[in-house]
## 1
Amino acid sequence: MNNLPPESITEKLLQAKRVLLLTHLRPDGDALGSTFGMRAFLRSQGVAAEVLIPCAIPRRYSRMCRDFAVSLSRRELDDFDLVLALDCANEARLGCGEFTPAELREKNFICIDHHRGNSLAAGESWIMPEAASTCQMVMQLISSMELPLVPESATFLLTGMMTDTGCFCFSNTSGESLRAAALTVDAGADIEKIANDIFFSKPLTQLKFEAELIETQLRTVCNGQVAYACVTDELLEKYDFDLREDEGLIDILRGLEGVVIAMLVHHRPDGWRISLRSKDSRFPVVDIARDFGGGGHTMAAGCTIDVPEFAEVERLLLPRFEKLLAGE
Ligand SMILES: [Mn+2]
């Protein structure tokens, strides 16, 4: 493990009496894996720790993520001497309930994250953009302390490592990612349970929703190198599909032969939510997302564009893809 966490963070974590663990809203596998994995680890070390998730969590994770707080009062917040935010890149995404980031900064407020351009401004931060997942960072942190990893923690950490790397298929997977994953397996991570719960448990309605999405919405441009689809409210209603469950939906577009850039679009009250993926590191999509006020990772990024019609989204973005693919 080359990238060692700051010693001050490991010290503070182990010296804390009660740690509050936070992550980003609309939590994904890495967000939940890192917070619940850290909770299990801290508890195994005799450090009291609680997770606050003030929003719904995707169904596929609800079996494994249990016993967390959905809200906390200010008085309850006082009981914590350390707040640790995991996998959260900025204040707007932080799932902190009714608390303001300023209130959290009055505590020992630490951030561990792998998003480039993290702007959370915690009291102390460990940001490692080259890490494929925050779970990988947590694993590196635990192994740097040379403390044992309990199987429950190992299973959570491996979950986030697998979801953020597409089961170690995406280009963010490094030797270090695989070594960190190996440590979780050695520690008893239940890879079969993760596979069945997270990857092989798609409800039939979702399968049908995806089939109709492809049948009616999939479009390709740039000689088939760009695939995109707009998730309509009609489709969501017809299949009673909750877009919070959409993690992986864009991978269907990415999985199409010949596709280099995939885009999934959905209309929200504040504009069109754009998710972008690239299959080729020569064509990073994060710059396009940034130009529209978004961000993310080099190959997986997103933004929101507030225009009335979807056709305008196409008019704004398709030429950008064309230029990117032409190497301009
Ligand atoms: Mn992540």
Note: The chain is about 40% helix and 15% strand.
## 2
Amino acid sequence: MLKPVEFKKFYYIFPQSVALIGVKENVMPVAWHTPLSADPPLYGILISPKRFTYELLNRTDGFTVNFLEYKDARLIARTGGVSGRDCDKLKKFEIEYIQAQQVEGVILSRAYGAYECEKYAVQRYGDHLLFVGNIVQVYIKDGVVNEQGVIDEKSVAPIIYFGQDRYITIAPEKIHFISRSAVGSRMLLNGQNRGAVRRFRSSPATPGDGNTVRLTVKILRSFAGNSISPISGRSLSICPIFQIWQRRKRSCLNFRSVHWSRI
Ligand SMILES: Cc1cc2nc3c(=O)[nH]c(=O)nc-3n(C[C@H](O)[C@H](O)[C@H](O)COP(=O)(O)O)c2cc1C
């Protein structure tokens, strides 16, 4: 059961990704960074005024954001453990880079993706400043995203910060595709499918394992009542929800008009 607690480091109760921010010839890791707008493409980084990076940001019009992998954890710890005021981090840690094209910052050769951002706005929030950048250039390593521009979980092991100097990464075999339109609002069109949504959410399953098979059977029964028996070896090998959604999309607009006999 959840209990109210005294909090200090409230930001350590959820995982965060880490990026290396480049300003002029210096880099620093941030765990506090986020997309802010898709159009225009705005990205925010939160920088304490204690950082040398903060001083540099006040002297230039942009910054870079470099996305690294789990294997780069040591580099992140190193660049976050020393200030650019005291040493040239790029030289000291032998960091390979190219200069950004449109802003004063570096693009790291080991990054799997990066942004160049022009300074768009700055706002203080308590003990940090939000620097908002307008993304003017995106870089991505070959083979890291699919045709839709979405990161491929098998090609990249992104670094995730777990708080207090702990780093962790993803387990690609745990990836779980759930079509939001299949399990979300469209299902509410038909009240009798709500049970299926609840059951799905309460029994997360990995595609291909034994749970998925049981889940498939449950969901199909619940959707289809007596009129369906579509379970074949092929249909069990990929995410069942996706398959239902794909077939439904082809044959009808909502659950009330599903012709289950077509499946
Ligand atoms: C994993 C990690 C995440 C960090 N996140 C932030 C952050 O979001 N904002 C910030 O101001 N400092 C953050 N820091 C601290 C700075 O990276 C660190 O103080 C760094 O040495 C500052 O470098 P600079 O003085 O050269 O700018 C983080 C450090 C680590 C190791």
Note: Residues 140 and 147 are 13 Å apart (CA to CA).
